[in-house]
């Protein structure tokens, strides 16, 4: 499956035309073509590579997924690897999808292996800025990058909301809630690490695109790319701060559990001390040697009174000391 667009002198003149007609359109220096390939096979990649003169190493990167976000420069084109990100509904799992982009003087080629990139939204973003279309491939690339970075913002905002929900569970006394906090905290930390791996290299990618020697971003487009770069920095800093917050949540959770354990130990120790009093007294009165009150009702009353009195005194002392 393929989608195509043809811009001529900054105006969209044709859409969804056959891929075989691309060569004819590129013969006009005023033409700019967008080609989107969805799950292309080896034969299709080879054909596109031959048509546009794409380097074999870049085509190999397309075939072997899970590339690091990067910008590679070749003699006739640039190769960009980037990712879309989203948080799975109802969980903390981060879903990523790789997008390969070839950039030539007159064409932007996007290659997707799944449908997680909302390509219709990218096309709509281009249509919303027709006044920039005369800047050619740089205009198309900006719309794509802007869409990807907006997705990063949505993902980090979603993770931020999940962390706030996690903080509300911290001081819940239930055992199940303690386990839920641990499970969610580790899930959030894993997702933030994955998001950082995607976002952090994008700073180098966008910065590399703005280098004057590349001649891809024209002077009027430079503020737009600078805005994308600033957004990437903000997402990176936000991700780092959320990682610190998750670490704080995990440490706080461990501290709360330790405090609860100390409280339990104080209560157990206090009750053990109270129980030790009747144990000692009954043990003393149960010895075989005669003692005051031996064999008389007064001895039984004395021992019972001592048990009750000393137990009450210990209970009041421990209660006042907040041990019970």
TrEMBL record:
GO cellular component, one term: plasma membrane
Domain of life: Bacteria
Coiled-coil intervals: 149-176
Principal subcellular localization: membrane
A GO term, aspect molecular function: magnesium ion transmembrane transporter activity
Keywords, in A-Z order: Cell membrane, Coiled coil, Membrane, Transmembrane, Transmembrane helix, Transport
CDD domains cross-referenced by the UniProt entry: TmCorA-like
Localization per record: Cell membrane
Stretches that traverse the bilayer: 268-285, 297-318
Topology term for the membrane: Multi-pass membrane protein
Protein name (Swiss-Prot/TrEMBL): Magnesium transporter
Family to which this protein belongs: Belongs to the CorA metal ion transporter (MIT) (TC 1.A.35) family.
